Amino acid sequence: MIAKTELVKKLKGYFDLNIYETKVWLALLSKGISSAGEVSELSGVPRSRTYDVFESLEKQGFVIQKLGKPVKYIAVKPEIVIEKLKNNTIKLSEEKVKTLSGLKDTNEYKELKELHKTGFEPTKNHELSTSIKGRSNLYLQMKTVMESSEKMVYLTSSAYELLSKQKMFKDIFTKLKKRKVDVKVMISDDEDEAEKLSKKFGVTIKSKPINSRFVISDKTELIFTIKPTNVHEDFDYGVWINSPFFISSLVYLFDIAWKD
Fold first, then answer.
1. Structural domain span for residue 39
2. What is the band of 121 on the pLDDT scale with cuts at 50, 70, 90?
3. How far apart are CA 152 and CA 241, in angstroms?
4. Judgement on whether residues 69 and 164 belong to the same structural domain of the protein
5. Phi then psi for 43, rounded to 5 degrees?
6. Is 170 among the domain residues?
7. What total of structural domains would you count in the chain?
8. H helices within the chain, ranges in order?
């Protein structure tokens, strides 16, 4: 039994195995228990490689070596393999998050900050713009820009966007209010929705016929999106601009709309 190429390709990706490991595991599953020689014939994997492959699969929890002679291997049930991989993935993710959370307390992080500061200083007083692709990257940069604000944050959005990232916006608005940063938000939804969101987020939110998404920080930084929210998040696109000259004009228009 030589497994179909398409099945091998898909399972290889799902279980993070190489081609030989996938073929050997599938062959063993079809038999339940078998020797290396038998699996080699079934899978088409060279016998000289089969022992190494079994050793790798055993370490990963896909097979178990049966005691006795001749040496045979038992296939672990797919549902048990999946459950083990899920637990391992969660454990690795938690360890990674823990490592990243503690990174700010290391000397390496201080060096990274110093390198960024050194590289950024020469262009700090010039107009700077760059593109941001992907909704998660856009939200991350918006979060960074807003949290660093000292005087004001102007935001245009929609009820959908605010609610889809409710925790992020609520946390940021709370921090800004504590620092007495002026926060103004305009949404394109109706006045009833704006009033509900004002109570939910604890900041003044007004309804205005402005169908756009942008955030202004301290009249010096601007992030505005090119695409509407109904595009796939991978294709969401925005521009980050650091130009007080340009942004001051947009602030002036925002203030007019806010007072109107």
1. 5-89
2. low
3. 16
4. no
5. -90, -25
6. yes
7. 2
8. 5-15, 19-31, 36-43, 47-60, 78-101, 107-120, 135-147, 159-164, 166-178, 191-201, 244-259
For CA atoms 87, 89, 92, 98, the dihedral sign is negative
pLDDT tens per residue across span 135-179 = 889 898 999 999 999 999 999 999 998 998 899 999 999 999 999
Whether 186 maps to a domain, the answer reads: yes
d(CA 171, CA 143): 10
Token couple for 253: 């228009």
pLDDT tens-digit map of 190-208? 999 999 999 999 999 999 9
Q: What does the pLDDT average to over 2-8?
A: 73
Structural Rg of the chain based on CA atoms: 28
Asked whether 24 and 53 are in contact (CB, 8 A), the reply is yes
pLDDT tops 50 at residue 123: no
HSE-CB for 78 with a 13 A CA cutoff:
9
Question: How many Å apart are CA 32 and CA 26, to the nearest integer?
Answer: 10
63: helix, coil or strand? strand
CA distances from 36 to 49, 50, 62, 68 (A): 9, 6, 15, 14
Position 60, amino acid:
Q
pLDDT tens digits, one per residue of 51-87 = 899 999 998 889 998 877 888 899 888 898 898 888 8
78 and 143 share one domain: no
Indicate if 132 and 250 belong to the same structural domain: yes
Q: Which amino acid is at 34?
A: S
